Amino acid sequence: MANTAQARKRARQATAAREHNGAQRSEFRTAVKKVLKAIAAGDKAAAATVYQQAVSTIDRIADKKIYHKNKAARHKSRLAAAIKAMA
Questions:
Q1: Following DSSP, what letter does each residue of 5-55 receive, concatenated?
Q2: Confidence band for 87, pLDDT divided at 50, 70 and 90
Q3: Of 3, 29, 40, 76, which is least surrounded by CB within 10 A?
Q4: Compositionally biased, Basic and acidic residues: which spans (predicted)?
Q5: What is the total count of domains within the chain?
Q6: What is the reported pTM?
Q7: Using CB atoms within 10 A of its CB, is residue 60 exposed (0-12), middle (13-18) or buried (19+)?
Q8: Which CATH number do you get for residue 28?
Q9: What is the pLDDT of residues 25-70, one digit of tens each?
Q10: Apex CA 46: angle with CA 28 and CA 23, to 5°?
């Protein structure tokens, strides 16, 4: 347990940051899943629209360094390739 006022405050801040970052990670995963669901449905136009929204979310979260920029780029690239490969 934290013994000093400073340590208690840092513990509170760490808890708040962990909750916020967890919510951001969840938003990232949800955005990716929405695109995958649209791809599975087979509608290329709808998938492209959802992809554009997901890219915005993914970039915003990567800019905050919650996920590494390369991880974000990898997800965007794979999703774009999956949309492009649709018949």
A1: HHHHHHHHHHHHHHHHHHHHHHHHHHHHHHHHHHHHHT-HHHHHHHHHHHH
A2: confident
A3: 3
A4: 17-27
A5: 1
A6: 0.87
A7: middle
A8: 1.20.58.110
A9: 999 999 999 999 999 999 999 999 999 999 999 999 999 999 999 9
A10: 15
